[in-house]
Design a protein that fits this description.
By secondary structure, the chain is an alpha+beta fold. It has helices at 10-31, 39-52, 67-71, 101-104, 110-143, 152-160, 198-213, 216-229, 234-256, 261-274, 293-301, 308-327, 364-378, 384-399, 416-424, 485-507, 510-515; strands at residues 3-5, 56-58, 78-84, 89-95, 146-147, 167-171, 178-180, 186-190, 286-287, 340-343, 348-354, 406-412, 428-430, 436-438, 441-448, 453-456, 462-468, 474-481, 523-526, 532-535. The protein folds into 3 domains: 78-105 and 337-413, no CATH class; 110-305, no CATH class; 417-535, no CATH class. Pfam families: Peptidase_M56. InterPro entries: Beta-lactam_resp_regulator, Peptidase_M56.
Length: 536
């Protein structure tokens, strides 16, 4: 299932566009002499679309969005607990005290964002201004052109190509033929060329008309827009150079398809005649250029007509490239789907999220919650991996998408009474102050990693770590005392942190003190009704 949106941020457009440019560079280096010449202008067109249109197309092959992108749009977490009795099923809901990442964190401070927008805008205006000045100079030159009206050779050639509506001009300020115009394209020929050489004239007009038929000036105009908007990206400037080169090569190939080997050699001679030493290919117009004439002549002399197999392979290559480029990157999205669901019939709690941007229809969250509760109620294994696999399978069936569209997290979810019953057998009990003690010894640091429960204080006789197997059952308890390397190392860390804390308190104001980072540990607790809550 595909999901289309127009919500791609600019920085991701730049990132994915740059990756695509580098990819085309690599493909061009490896397959330039093996693929038809029309392939690379098509690939460059895909890159331009990525750079200019903020689309996001999510598919099963899309690149996963980094977690920090997802957190930008993450919704507040809601915890649901289903408690089952013999007759009825009760579901209670409680909102936790966690908040959206976007509410409390900002990737770029607003003042810097404003400066970046201003610099980007000024750069765009400056680049556009320079290109407009260049166009104005070309326009002044072309305004002095003379329409060629009574040249029978030109009229005959245009008639043979069914392009009688195209106007041909001569100009004494240009050095090589060029095509100018989008809606009303015109061909301009240098006054100094020999109009009596019919074959030369035929080759030139055929080449320029092929540019018109292929809409190359339109593609160059889009390229100019990309250069203006992405003026700061050197890869875009390199792309403009290679795009112009590939357009000329594709145009030559289109002309050569209509010729035999003798005509191709003659065409190469005409190309060499009209190429001007030192004249560079222009982004503004399609024109002959001496800078790449050697490469173009080599391509002409080694040209081979496309076979059906090569054409089919090229089309397949373009289709696969289009799919990969279009769906490879996706915009940040909210990964929120289900609540954190727990059931008194299971030792495990489950939360499902989205792995890619996708539309799941109405009440998707409620439907996902129901799927999870059904799995927890039906499960008799208490195996977290089996539960996770079954939730993925049922979610995919419920929403009609692939399993990879979801992320499912299964965590141990026990009530206080269940935890205390397990801990007592290991010699861990709660003291009067609410902190755990181990066989009468004060615990400095206690951690049950799978349960997500931690207690810590500065003083204590032992550090206790509860180890569980994959089914969530306590397999062992690690107890560290003074003299153990880990215990002593932790003691030194506490001393350093305590010393640093005193320095920070002395040197900072009360406001800065409030912003000082401290360790926080989250503990699953239950209230008097037996419902789960989330304490900090």
């Amino acid at each position: 299932m595909l999901h289309f949106g127009l919500n791609m941020p600019l920085f991701l457009m730049v990132l994915h566009g740059s990756i695509m440019i580098l990819t085309v560079f690599l493909l061009r280096t490896l397959f330039k002499n093996h693929l038809p010449k029309f392939v690379f202008p098509v690939l460059w067109s895909l890159v331009l679309f990525r750079l200019l249109v903020p689309f996001s197309l999510s598919s099963p092959i899309s690149t996963p969005v980094p977690d920090w992108h997802l957190n930008l749009l993450e919704a507040p977490t809601v915890y649901l607990v289903e408690s089952t009795t013999t007759d009825t099923t009760d579901t209670t809901t409680e909102e936790s005290v966690t908040y959206s990442f976007a509410e409390s964190h900002d990737m770029v401070p607003s003042n810097w964002r404003l400066i970046l927008l201003l610099v980007n805008g000024l750069g765009t205006v400056a680049t556009a201004g320079i290109l407009l000045c260049q166009k104005q100079r070309y326009t002044k030159k072309l305004n002095n052109s003379l329409l060629i009206e009574h040249n029978r050779s030109i009229q005959t050639i245009l008639s043979e190509m069914n392009m009688e509506h195209i106007l041909v001009f001569s100009n004494d300020e240009i050095s090589s033929p060029l095509v100018c115009g989008l809606f009303n394209p015109r061909i301009y020929l240098p006054t100094g060329m020999d109009f009596q050489q019919i074959q030369l004239l035929h080759h030139i007009l055929y080449h320029e008309i092929m540019h018109i038929k292929r809409k190359d000036n339109w593609l160059k105009t889009v390229m100019l827009i990309a250069v203006c908007l992405h003026w700061y990206n050197p890869l875009v400037w390199l792309m403009s150079k290679y795009l112009s080169s590939d357009l000329e090569a594709a145009c030559d190939a289109a002309v050569l398809r209509q010729m035999d080997s003798t005509q191709r050699q003659s065409y190469a001679g005409s190309l060499l005649t009209m190429a001007i030493m030192g004249n560079r290919s222009s982004l503004l117009y399609s024109s002959f250029s001496k800078t790449e004439v050697e490469r173009r002549i080599k391509n002409i002399l080694t040209y081979k007509k496309l076979t059906t197999f090569t054409l089919l392979c090229s089309i397949l290559f373009l289709l696969s490239s289009t799919i990969a480029f279009a769906t490879g990157g996706q915009a940040p999205f909210s990964a929120y789907l289900s609540s954190f669901c727990g059931s008194t019939s299971s030792r495990w709690g489950v939360k499902a999220g989205l792995a890619r941007d996708i539309a799941l229809g109405e009440k998707a969250g409620n439907r996902a919650d129901d799927v999870i509760f059904n799995v927890l109620d039906a499960d008799a294994t208490n195996d977290p991996e089996i539960i996770r696999t079954q939730v993925l399978t049922d979610l995919a069936k419920e929403f009609g998408v692939e399993k990879g569209a979801f992320k499912v997290v299964v965590t141990l979810c026990l009530s206080d009474e269940e935890v205390e019953r397990e801990y007592v057998t290991q010699g861990i009990t709660k003291g009067p102050d609410g902190f755990y003690v181990y066989q009468g010894e004060t615990i400095r640091t206690y951690k049950d990693g799978m349960l997500g429960s931690v207690q810590t204080k500065e003083e204590g006789e032992v550090d206790v770590y509860v180890n569980r197997n994959r089914l969530g059952q306590i397999s062992s308890v690690t107890v560290l005392r003074k003299g153990d390397s880990e215990f002593d190392q932790r003691s030194k860390e506490i001393e350093r942190n305590h010393y640093q804390y005193k320095i920070n308190t002395y040197e900072t104001t009360s406001t800065a003190y409030e912003n000082t980072a401290v360790e926080q540990y989250s503990v699953l607790e239950t209230n008097q009704t037996g419902d789960l809550s989330y304490g900090q």
